[in-house]
Specification:
It is built from seven helices and eight strands, in the order H-E-H-E-E-E-E-H-H-E-H-E-H-E-H. It is α/β, with parallel strands linked by helices.
């Protein structure tokens, strides 16, 4: 029986219960996808007693067909391209270069906005739990997984409170493990599965990352 989450914090607590096998485990890091994924990821990281960071990933949509990903740009100047899609849609190298440059600017701006001068958590050789507040199309999550794999070769666990059932197969092919609490056949939207689903501000993301960093130092 499907149920609604009270809010992102409640969803994070419930998600953490399914991830307790990773609690206080060396080399485990939780990465939240901004913005909505970060409050969920904060609760997961806190419950597991592991570091939290943000991971910026921008899907590169095909011009005129933005729902189709021709690649992704992510934190660390990582660019992953799907050359088959580029060729199939006849996207010129100039258009690809423009899309990559614009996405790189957005990623760098997001890293600075959310993390400030604090360096990113080193995920080399780690087990990464990549968290979002829900998986609708799966494009952003797939982009992030591809970028993490290309950059760090990490073991990747994708975790979300709710996901569209028909979108999980593609994610499962990319990730090492997928943990999802609710998989409705009729999805509608991520927000439909929360009683309270307010927008998450940049300031809130920054504050949660700062709190998590302080907790790690104290520990």
């Amino acid at each position: 029986m499907l149920h609604l989450f009270e809010d992102r914090a409640d969803a994070g607590w419930q998600l953490a219960e399914q991830l307790m096998g990773y609690a206080a485990h060396p080399g485990v890091i939780v990465l939240g996808l901004p913005r909505g994924g970060v409050p969920v990821a904060f609760e997961v990281a806190t419950a597991l007693g592991v570091p939290l960071d943000v991971f910026m990933a921008r899907k590169l949509g095909v011009p005129g067909h933005t729902e189709i990903a021709m690649g992704a740009v992510a934190t660390g100047d990582v660019c992953v391209m799907n050359e088959e899609v580029v060729r199939a849609f006849g996207v010129s190298r100039d258009r690809v270069a423009e899309a990559v440059a614009a996405a790189e600017r957005q990623v760098r701006a997001g890293d600075l906005r959310y993390r400030g001068r604090r360096p990113p958590v080193d995920v080399h050789g780690s087990t990464v739990i990549l968290v979002d507040d829900g998986i609708a199309t799966g494009a952003t999550v797939r982009a992030a997984v591809s970028a993490l794999r290309a950059q760090f070769g990490a073991r990747i666990v994708v975790a979300a409170p709710v996901a569209a059932f028909d979108r999980l197969v593609a994610v499962e092919h990319l990730a090492d493990e997928v943990v999802v609490l609710e998989m409705p056949a009729r999805f509608h939207s991520v927000g439909a599965w929360y009683r309270a689903f307010p927008p998450v501000s940049d300031d809130e993301v920054h504050a949660l990352l700062e709190r998590a960093a302080t907790d790690v130092v104290r520990a």
